[in-house]
Amino acid sequence: MSAAYATFGLAPAMRAGGVRADGGYQVHRDFVDFVVDGSPLLFQLSDLDAVSPLASDIPPAIFTAQVRSLLLESAAPLPDDRYVIYGCPECEDLACGAVTAVIEREGDDYVWRDFAWQTDEHADLELNGYHGIGPFRFPGPEYREALGALLEDSGPPPGRRVLLIGARVALLAKLAAALRTIGIGADITRDADGVPAEELRGYGAVAFGPTVGETERAAVRKAFDRAGVEVACVDGLAPIVPLLVAQIEHALDRSPLPQRRLTHLVAADGAAGIEVTSPCRVQLTAYRLDRLSRLHSQDLFDGVLEPGSHRIPLDGRTAKGGSYVVARTSGSVLVQAVAR
What we know:
alpha+beta, Rossmann fold, Immunoglobulin-like, 3 domains, four-stranded antiparallel β-sheet, four-stranded parallel β-sheet, 20 strands
């Protein structure tokens, strides 16, 4: 078959979890994404909410088996030499739908072709094929080196954990419970004194409550520096659990900046300014507390945006300031206070 050469790589990615004001939630998933010609392959698949088989929360043995399968060291899991490229982020059931493709060797090259949306054992390429995607021909050495590096690491990347620091135990307990619900580990403490370096290395972010002073914050950062950990620090904007979860999700995003869909958010002058790099569904939500500390949330926008900059009007109450806006795609979250 004829196919132009494409570059193959891997990059950390996430399916952003979230907590809604009504108590609903979406599960957080960390995974390794496929990067083809410098761009995540997932971005070519419309606005698909999915993860690759190389997820951080699967057992190491299964992770290794998935990598070896992509290297064609074992039989294809589906008929007609088809492999799952992206699947449901909530479960592993093919009935939920998955992006599959034929993976085969041609000489020393690896070829991915005949991409399709599949919900049962056999793919209908005419009805459900991604006709504008692929085939991709990857040079064998580059392909094997990228996937082989995952095997050398002896398993999936570690899941993310968050250290919550502050004096408002009730709020932190609610936040920790919300994070655990969506699949992010969370621990609460007053400081990091005496915490072993090995334990600190398990955290991807530290969230500080508003009562934590700069001296205490500096001590925490110093403890992580001594442990050789590069940790993201989050200053909570307001005691609103869905908002804090969104801030932490943003801090945990390890994907390279050039490979993110949602790249900019500003809320001022009666509108939210949003920039996206590829067609995707964007949800915009506003949060605020009234004078009695009651939470109010409002869905401002939910639709597919084309690449570029977009201006979305805010309603009168949100535009006055004192509110916070959360912009969300399937893999990115940004948070911004509304400028007065």
